[in-house]
Structures are given as structure tokens and as C-alpha cells.
Amino acid sequence: MTAAVEQQVGDQQVNGRPVAEYGTGLQVTRVTRTSDGRYEWWQGPGAHRPEPLAAPFVSYVPRHTRGACLVTPRPSGRGLAYLADGPYSAAAWLRDARPQARRLVAHALAAAGTALRELHATQAPTTDVPPALVRLRSFVEGGHDLDSPEPAVHRLRAHVARAWGPARLERLRAWCAEPAAPGETVLVHGFASLGALVPPLHRGPVALLTGEDLGAARPELDLGWLLGDLAELAWAVPVFGDGPRDGGPEPDLPGVLLDAYGPGVDRERAARAAVLRIALHMRDFAAYCGWSDELTDYTAFIADLIDEEGRRAVPGGATP
């Protein structure tokens, strides 16, 4: 399902022409090489999203961070344009079987963890939760998601209600709406995924594309988003995690992220946020790509994750 969402339809290393182009009904992404050898990542609305993209809180993002650069966008047409030093995301690199690709992702995750720590030191300028969490809440609660013209959303919601049962749905609903005490919420990236993390192709900083999904939440939301991506790949891709074939050590990618972020992480909350990330991916696939029989596999996988409260997503947790 991940490959289908990020299917590349172009591969031309020519200035002004796409290096990569992919998308869903929610968002399209086009990567082009610039005249100075960098890469512009343009993101715009997909066919099921009539409004243009906006990033109202980017002025609050720290301009200089250790580790990754929190790259904020400029408006461009109906979308947003980011500058990075690589044409491929960490998600794409993890589908590369070469051991050096996995080490590159480990470096990028460490850089992301360090930068997110600094972002989370920023007081949120809003009380709004990130848009991704709003979408998942609506789906779990059976709200306006069911007004969607996409029949796959209705089919999936009915399926998860049967497959998960009311107890699991209630648990997921509670995690989506978990209250925070005063001072617990910070400015969060809101969609700190492997698809937004861009290692440099040759030289330059790791980029974490940061913009339209900014909002207020606990810091564990961002960490859980990345941990959820890693847990999903470990389950969905048979060769993921087989380890380097050159005899070198296998990078513990979740551990790399958490070690770089530093102390004070509530690992139970991060594990629950990882489950939310995978559940949202399932929901968004149905809403913006349509039905796939793979979605029934996802509902079974997520049921197991709900039962174990996402522990397999964090180092030292349950194994698949």
C-alpha cells in the first residue's frame, strides 16, 4: 500500500522537469532539480481537495536547528514549494536493498530527532490539533468522513467496525482525543513521516519538510508518526529489517530516532501515536486512492497493534 501511495511516474534528471512525481486524491508531489543543483519539492492539492495548500504557522518554526533543517515552504500556485538537497525521501531510500541506504536513513532519523526536540521547545501559537489527527478522529467517530463521496471510506468504516469491535474502536477514539494537562502541548510538525524526511543526495543538511500540518499536541505525536512508519514497513515489506549484507551492524532505526531526541519521552504515548499513524494511513488510502483488498490486512494488523497498545513500534516493545 505504501508503494501504491508513493508510486513514481517520472524519473528524469533534467532541470525544470520532474525527477519524481506522485500523488493521491489528497495531495500531489512533484520534485524538480533547480539550476543550482538542489531540488524543489512542490506539493499541491489532489483531485479530492478543492482548497489550495496553506501553512499559517511557519513563522513560529525555528529557523536554525541542530540536526535536520526544518524546511518551511513558500507559496507556489495552489501549493507549497520546499527546497532540499535530495530528490528522494527516507521512505524511498528504505525500499533500496543496499545496506548504505539504510544507514543513510538512520542518519536522517537521528537528524530529525534532534531537530524535533528543538521544535518542541516552541510554544504552540494555536490550540488546533494537526489536520491529520482531525481526519482520523472523524473516521473513528463516524463523523463527517461518512459524507465522503468515496465509497471506499464507507466500506472501510463498516469493515473496521465489524473487525475491531466496539472496545477497540473506543480505545482508538480515546487515544485520538486524549486530554493534555496545561503546558503539555507544544508546536508539533503534525506529519513527521518518512515521506517528509529528505536526506541529501551528495552534500547538504537532512531536510524535514515542515509546513501545512503544524499544530498543537504532545511531542510524542511527532515521534509516534515516524515510529509508526517504521513499524508499518517492518510488517508490510518482507525484506525490511533483514539487515545489511556486508556484515555490518544493523541500525536500530526506532532506537536511533529516540536516542537522538533525548530523554523525557513518554514511550507509551509514542507507541499509541504510532498506532494512530498507521490507522490514518489506512483511512487516507481508502479516502484518496480507493478500495484495495490490502485494507483488510491492515485492519487485522491494526487490531493487533491496538491490543498491544503499539508496543512493537518502540525499542524493547513487543515483537510482531
**Secondary-structure class:** alpha+beta
Strand order of the largest sheet: 1-2-3-6-5
Mean pLDDT: 89
As a whole number of angstroms, the C-alpha radius of gyration is 19 Å
- Summed up, the helix count is 9
Please identify the oligomeric state: single chain
Molecular structure report:
With 320 residues, the chain is an alpha+beta fold. It contains nine helices and ten strands. It has helices at residues 2-5, 90-93, 99-119, 131-141, 151-176, 220-236, 253-261, 267-288, 294-307, and strands at residues 18-23, 27-33, 39-45, 69-71, 74-76, 79-84, 186-188, 197-198, 207-209, 215-217. A five-stranded antiparallel β-sheet has the order 1-2-3-6-5, with no helix packed on it. A three-stranded mixed β-sheet has the order 4-9-8, with helices on one face. Strands 7-10 form a two-stranded antiparallel ribbon. 43% of the residues are buried.
Nutshell version of this structure?
The protein is α+β, with helices and mostly antiparallel strands. It is built from nine helices and ten strands.
Summarize the topology.
Layout: H1 2-5, E1 18-23, E2 27-33, E3 39-45, E4 69-71, E5 74-76, E6 79-84, H2 90-93, H3 99-119, H4 131-141, H5 151-176, E7 186-188, E8 197-198, E9 207-209, E10 215-217, H6 220-236, H7 253-261, H8 267-288, H9 294-307
Parallel strand pairs: 4-9
Antiparallel strand pairs: 1-2, 2-3, 3-6, 5-6, 7-10, 8-9
Features:
five-stranded antiparallel β-sheet, about 325 residues, three-stranded mixed β-sheet, alpha+beta, about 15% strand, disordered N terminus, 9 helices, globular
